[in-house]
Amino acid sequence: MVNSRCHDRWLLLITAVLVIFGSIMIYSSTSVVTPVLAKKNVTPFFYFKRHIFTMIMGSTFMYVAYRTNPEALKKAAIPLLVFAFILLILVFIPKIGISAGGARRWIRLWPSTFQPSELVKLAMVISLAKYMSMPSYKTDSITSFLIPVGIMGLFQVVFLKQPDFGAAMSLCILTVAMLILSGIRLRYIMMLGLLLVPVSIKLATEPYRLKRILAFLDPWKDSQGSGFQLVQSFIALGSGGIKGIGLGESKQKLAFLPESHTDFIFSLVGEELGFIGACFIVCLFLLMFLRGVSIANRTKDPFGYYLASGLSMMIALQALINFCVITGLVPTKGLPLPFVSYGGSSLLMNMVAVGLLLRLSRGDEVRRVIDKTEGLIERKKALMSVYGRGHALSRYGRANGQGNS
Predict the structure, then answer these.
(1) Is 373 domain-assigned?
(2) 48 CB-contact burial (10 Å; exposed 0-12 / middle 13-18 / buried 19+)
(3) In this structure, are residues 112 and 151 in contact, taking their beta carbons and an 8 Å threshold?
(4) Which of 47, 98, 252, 323 is deepest in the core (most CB within 10 A)?
């Protein structure tokens, strides 16, 4: 029997530990103000206070998501996807979109900024869950395959225009993974892979991407240029050893490792807390993914199953890519570590995802259907015992709006 009152406490505990740990590491990585930040009047608590504010907002968002009825979410799937696309377009409008590091990925939202690509991933998971649970969705139909791929392709064009190759790659892998999960024909996936080969080659030969790829292949060749960030990441991880050099004692955060509080915060975890601390974080994400899979397997509703699976993959995929970037297994993508890195948009959307998973773990919708069915059966039995079978069926039909048969 599904307990309709109890959410997955392990998932909530893991999320809380990651968020609190992330706050500690963000303060550790930004508590030392470099000369460059000092010129901008940045104090030791500047990033920490902003992150705490985002945590409070994220907790509110998570609670709202937890209280959201899955059926209402299902109805809002397409409007949410359209809204996410509109926000994605707004980054190109002057005075609304914000440019940084040669990319336009953010829009101005008081009191901070927002990265629409994070909402796009969440909206895409919800929309795919709805689409795959529809009776018209056929795993052996090329049309059923092309519709989500076409929508994904539309978002990819906008991502690459920003440019945001990390978001484009994440959305592609997430979409394909959910299609495979639904049981789509593998030959369709292979066809898509073949079509993406020339596109990938064209994208990889762009000067700045080619520079990243070459730096990934041999970062020591240009250790003071394109390979600087990856080399400093290796130094941070190597300096930590087994137990680390101590919390707050990082040397790489002293203006050596760029983005040490965002994309490369895991390097500081390895430096300050060592191999043990890094393994602890990896294990937490693994446990979170397993809890998400467990929730999906317990969900009887197809929409809930695909939604729980997609949300679990969304969080785990971003964490996996970040781990691979930090350790030099893939080129730099610019993706933060969920719940741990400084980055409001990522934290907000991931906490919404956890809120939805917690709601699905309660099994309210399944319990409601079971209770209603059991109630109707008991009522029918009671009528039969009083009036006999024929009269009972007649009364039962009239009571449920079916009229005389």
Answers:
(1) yes
(2) buried
(3) no
(4) 252
User: How many folded domains does the chain comprise?
Assistant: 1
Report pTM. 0.85
Both tokens of 136, joined, read 């018209």
Length of the chain: 405
Residue 213 lies in a domain: no
CA–CA distance, 308 with 170 (Å, rounded to integer):
17
Specify the pairing of strand 112-114 against strand 103-109: antiparallel
Torsion of CA 35, 41, 42, 43, to 10 degrees: 100
Joined together, the tokens standing for residue 69 give: 């009825």
What is the tens place of the pLDDT at every residue in 108-151? 876 678 999 999 999 999 999 999 999 999 999 999 999 999 99
Residue with tokens 């991407």: 209
Strands 112-114 and 97-100: unpaired
Q: Which two tokens stand for residue 264?
A: 């490369």
**Is 70 exceeded by the pLDDT of residue 373?**
no
Write the pLDDT tens digit of every residue in 20-56: 999 999 999 888 876 666 666 777 888 899 999 999 9
Q: Is residue 48 part of a domain?
A: no
Spatial distance between the Cα atoms of 396 and 284, rounded to a whole number of angstroms: 53
Query: Which residue range(s) make up the domain with 386?
Result: 368-405
Kindly state the average pLDDT of the residues 179-190. Answer: 94
Q: How far apart are CA 215 and CA 217, in angstroms?
A: 5
Residue 383 has pLDDT above 70, yes or no: no
Q: Is residue 379 part of a domain?
A: yes
SS (H, E, C) the chain: CCCCCCCCHHHHHHHHHHHHHHHHHHHHHHCCCCHHHHCCCCCCCHHHHHHHHHHHHHHHHHHHHHCCCHHHHHHCHHHHHHHHHHHHHHCCCCCCEEEECCEEEEEEECCEEECHHHHHHHHHHHHHHHHHCCCCCCCCCHHHHHHHHHHHHHHHHHHHHCCCHHHHHHHHHHHHHHHHHHCCCHHHHHHHHHHHHHHHHHHHCCHHHHHHHHHHHCHHHHCCCCCHHHHHHHHHHHHHCCCCCCCCCCCCCCCCCCCCCCCCHHHHHHHHHHHHHHHHHHHHHHHHHHHHHHHHHHCCCHHHHHHHHHHHHHHHHHHHHHHHHHCCCCCCCCCCCCCCCCCHHHHHHHHHHHHHHHHHHHCHHHHHHHHHHHHHHHHHHHHHHHHCHHHHHHHHHHHCCCCCC
- Report residue 47 CA to chain centroid gap: 22
